[in-house]
Amino acid sequence: MEEELLEDILASFKGKRYELVPILQEVQDNLGYLPEKAMLDIARFVGVPESHVYSVASFYAQFRLLPLGRKRVAVCRGTACHIRGAPQILSTIVKTIDLKEGETSDDLEYTLETVACIGCCALAPCIRINREVSGDMTPEKAKGLFLVKEGGEDVE
Amino acid sequence: MEKISIRIDDQDILAQKGATILEVALANKIYIPHLCYHPDLKPAGSCRVCLVELENGQLVTSCRTPVKDGMIIKTSSPEIDKVRRPVVEMIIANHHMDCKNCAKKGQCGLQRIMAYMKIDKKRIQQTLRLPEVELPFDESNPFFIRDHNKCVLCGICVRTCQEIARVSAIDFAGRGNNTRIAAFGDKPITQSKCVSCGECVIRCPVGALVVRNIGRPEREFKSICPYCGVGCGIYLGIKDNEIVSVRGDSENAVNNGNLCVKGRFGMGFVHSTDRLKTPLIRQGRGKGNPPSPPFSKGGQGGFVEVSWDEALTFVARKLKKYKGDEIAVIASTKCTNEENYIAQKFARVVMGSNNIDTSVRLCYSPMIAPLRDIGIWVGCDSPAEDSEISSDLLRQNLEQIEQAACILVTGANITLSYPVLGLKIKKAVESGARLLVISPHENELCRIADIWLQPYPGTDLALLMGMCNVIVEGALYDDAFVEMYCNNFEEFRESLDDFPLGRVERITGISRDLIEESARIYAGNKPGAIFWGTGITQSAHGTDNVYALANLSILTANIKYSRALNPLLGQNNALGACDMGCLPNYFPGYQPVDSKDAQVKFRSLWGRELNPEPGLTLTEILDATLEGKIKALYIIGSNLASNIAPFKKVHAALKKAKFVVSQDMFLNETAKYAHVILPAASFAEKTGTFINTEGRVQRIQKALKAIGDSRPDWEILCELAKRLKSEGFEFENTEDILSKLLEAIKDVPEVKRRFSFFPLKYRPPEEATDIDYPLILTTERDFSGDGVMSEKVEGLKGLRMKDFIYINPKDAADFEIEDGEPIRVISRHGAIESGARLRGTTPAGLVVMNLEGEKVNKLLNPVLDEESKTPEMKMCAIRIEKMKTLKKK
Description:
Structural class of chain A: alpha+beta
Radius of gyration of chain B: 30 Å
CATH architecture of the largest domain in chain A: 3-Layer(aba) Sandwich
CATH class of the largest domain in chain B: Alpha Beta
Shape of chain B: globular
Strand content of chain B: 15-25%
Helix content of chain A: 40-55%
Largest interface: A-B, 15 and 18 residues
Strand content of chain A: 5-15%
Distance between the termini of chain B: 79 Å
CATH topology of the largest domain in chain A: Glutaredoxin
Number of helices of chain B: 31
Strand order of the largest sheet of chain B: 14-13-27-26-25-15-16
Largest sheet of chain A: 4 strands, mixed
CATH topology of the largest domain in chain B: Rossmann fold
Distance between the termini of chain A: 44 Å
Number of helices of chain A: 7
Oligomer: heterodimer
Helix content of chain B: 25-40%
């Protein structure tokens, strides 16, 4: 299925070198990340070396080379959140779902990442799960948002 | 070129217009610190270390600023230092500064900059933030190590891979602090497209890329790479009678300093412990047993070590028993011209036999007849730099491949088999040459070709004649040239009626539009160069295939150019062996054995009556041996036992022979059947000349004392000739032989001034598929080689893609085979086992096998090309089976 999707996407482009970034974006939008196989096919399609596609994909923060979890958890580490206890929130979540920053769980349930500012400092400290922002976080509230994962701990 | 005057640091300099400041300064021995500049690459200007100050106070990167008349440049000033110092300090902070233990110690670009700028390493380590994590080494490659901790991100390796190797296996990855040089997916370098040519390694200014086990040579000797027919110039670095380094000869027009993995890293075979060091004589009766050490005790195969005197006396005594046609000599495409001259003279004069041939018979000999017929004397071109021999071997000046406007490649995977030639073709294409590639399965050149023609295997002739048809019908041929210089055009034109495009389309499976367009491109872009390999010649119709290529070239008058027809010979001196007369029907210089003139000439030259009957070809020699007509085989530097199909017959023939001498560097499969084994010296241990695939004659120097008691092949043969009481073998050195052989090939009858067309008929390939054998097997080679020499180099063995058979995923699904699964490949004549690899670029119906240990020969029972007796070895009908089902049975 992934392959067909990729074929469809490539069919809508001409195969020019300058289309590389738009193609990568389109593929990521559809597949959630940039699988290796897709990058190899894209390299062939636009006629650039594989290493160059990897260079571009690894340069931009917007591209992901690993699949994303269904729940994308972003903990804000902006100044306001930091002062109001973001480190504790983060460490609680790290322990609860047993993931480090930037990691995705093996069952593709969660991806944990941190951001510099979500833009709602009045609600600090806050986290965002997919598109939903939850503010005035406390470690307890944060814990309540997640199922305790196997290997994770039930933090008091 | 116009000169302009500039001033650098109070020194007035006359500079070449168009040069950059850095180039001029370095040429005048003025050092400007630099990191990302390399003379072979386009300037990048990214390291900001080569700053200089102009008169107006402006700071510019000297590597990217061209000189202007009257320019006044300062290479050091407080202003420059203010900008440059922090740049360099930060690079040093991010660099693993363990200089004492670094392989690049003393040759490091960064060390030099540090010394020049008087930078205190300790101070930096105390004041600047150093990287927190140490990155692991990439030690996957057997020949070099990548250490990211020492990388300064100058990008020289990335640009080298792009501009010189044209592979682009690596690039910058990540950003900011995490930037690194990486292969696709940050994988180890051996899992990338890297071809291990090492061009990046020799250009790395720091210790990030270092060659393993490299030594500093005491002396360098100019030589020629002994691997393929491209014949790259090399310098062998010697220390204590051992090759410790190899570097490309940048003045050699063949390779301009570039080398592939075999040339740069593959010389280890010279010092392999497997080298034969003393002559061996079989004591026991057990012929067919593999000889194995220790020989002092008679060994396993009953071989004992003997002195040269003993061995030669023994061989001479044995050979005396056989006369004329009872003996055959197999010469070597790896030996020098001088040695091959001696080998054929030995066969003809001492033994009175024209049964002399080489392994060229198995791959390239179909080219000889056509190229002689159209008046191109194969080989013996002017040597690149050696004027003393050039006057005698002179033919035409070699035009560079880069000058071709259209390149047609067929039956060869050039980037794999002839990597350095591949670079030249890529370069020509980048500078605008049109590229047509004919290949049943995809290779690297297909990707950059204007048109990739994908015929069914074995249908090349129809395709080529179809192209001729387009050219004639569209009146795209060179009318005046054909009129003035060519014979039998009308007859040829009529024969093209057999190749209407509709028929060609059906035979080849290529659409008529593509055929038409290709013909137009070839006819419309001159000069046009054709390159062909074994895909054309290792066929039951090999000679006709070459004729078809010749037709195409004559029709368009491309034949006028010296690079018009380029056979690609696999062995370093295959062409030389043919030129020197290691052919059953030709004396040296392709003078026919059965011609009266040649007989008279060689009789007076060699002072002996000569056999006027052409001898047998290699394939026929084996048949005759099996029939008992040939009783003695003298085999020089060839491994018949595994190189020739059908496998069983060859082994039976070797077993049947009454007396077999194997003269080689190593104990090979053939040695199993030998009565005497004579140790031969390698290319590094002798002097002489090689002729490359283009026809350049190039010299090799003696760089080493011979290993053990081994001796150059010519010495052995001359000694033997003396013991057989033959005169004319009293040579002191190879120079003496060279002057004699030049005498032999001089005054060859005039080259013809008219070209002939060859009317041809299409015959379907001899190996056809049917319901039991529905797939066609073809072969390809790996860049790291799989021959007698590369086999002895551990690293090359490690790099080689293991034994695999590539199958289209659709075929694999039909046979229910998965990637990596062991399978059995069965032909009408034999079966082998291998691993399956699914590859989308292999077309359905075709199976591509990577030749390892010549295993494929077990599957073949080849039909011979009528003219040249070359076996069809590129095609075989097969079926594949799962190994599991086999076990159930």
